[in-house]
Write a structure and sequence with these properties.
The chain is α/β, with parallel strands linked by helices and about 220 residues long. Helix content is about 50%, strand content about 15%.
């Protein structure tokens, strides 16, 4: 094998190493969860509905491929994405899959429940800025504080029923959560419509919003 061929094999192997690390459904889900905010292994395990032991094993693979980093805060070890390029990788990979995989398209249609006109990002931003619509973020509050859409209000899904009175019925309510695969926004829309709100789901989460070069707002966050 000549020197050039050997070097090329090394180059492709390093890229394949990263692809193998991301090539697991649960590891992709962990990446999506870390797009929202840094989290402890216990939180990731609970949100991904797997054991702490399995979550730790997946995170070890992601860290070895330099897709995630850690930091210590007191007794907690917090995981975070290595940089924004990892979030962009997740969004790009998912978009390609959505365009190519008929099974994924069918599953997304079932998740959406009904076919609605897509909500244009720039229009949502302009209308929210002018106060013409209300945007609510139904993710956990710590995710909202780590990064959220401009002008969005934090109304975690478990709190929605007791906070209906905070939302004006005269304005359209746009709901988002963690992205197209997230079920929380759809559940919130159902609850809101039953109460007479003109509610719509925005498929974007913060990773998608950032991927398209749109601004995010951040606040102090104390993750666990």
């Amino acid at each position: 094998m000549d020197q050039d061929r050997a070097l090329k094999d090394v180059l492709y192997e390093q890229v394949a190493r990263l692809a193998r690390a991301a090539g697991s459904p649960k590891r992709l889900e962990l990446i999506e969860l870390l797009c929202q905010s840094e989290k402890s292994v216990d939180t990731l395990a609970q949100q991904a509905q797997i054991s702490v032991k399995l979550a730790s094993a997946h995170l070890k693979q992601l860290k070895a491929a330099r897709l995630v980093d850690t930091r210590r805060e007191g007794k907690y070890v917090l995981y975070r994405l290595a940089d924004e390029a990892v979030a962009s990788l997740w969004v790009s990979l998912r978009r390609v899959a959505e365009n190519r995989m008929l099974e994924l398209q069918a599953a997304l249609t079932e998740l959406a429940g009904e076919v609605l006109e897509p909500l244009d990002r720039e229009t949502v931003l302009k209308k929210a800025r002018r106060g013409e619509i209300v945007v609510i973020d139904v993710r956990p509050e710590e995710e909202y504080r780590a990064g959220h859409l401009p002008y969005a209000r934090s109304v975690p899904l478990p709190e929605l029923r007791r906070r209906f009175d905070e939302l004006p019925k005269a304005r359209t309510v746009v709901v988002y959560c963690r992205g197209p695969f997230c079920v929380m926004a759809g559940k919130a829309v159902i609850q809101l419509r039953k109460k007479g709100f003109d509610a719509h789901r925005l498929d974007d989460g913060v990773a998608e919003w950032n991927f398209h070069g749109l601004p995010l707002e951040r606040e102090a966050v104390n993750p666990r």
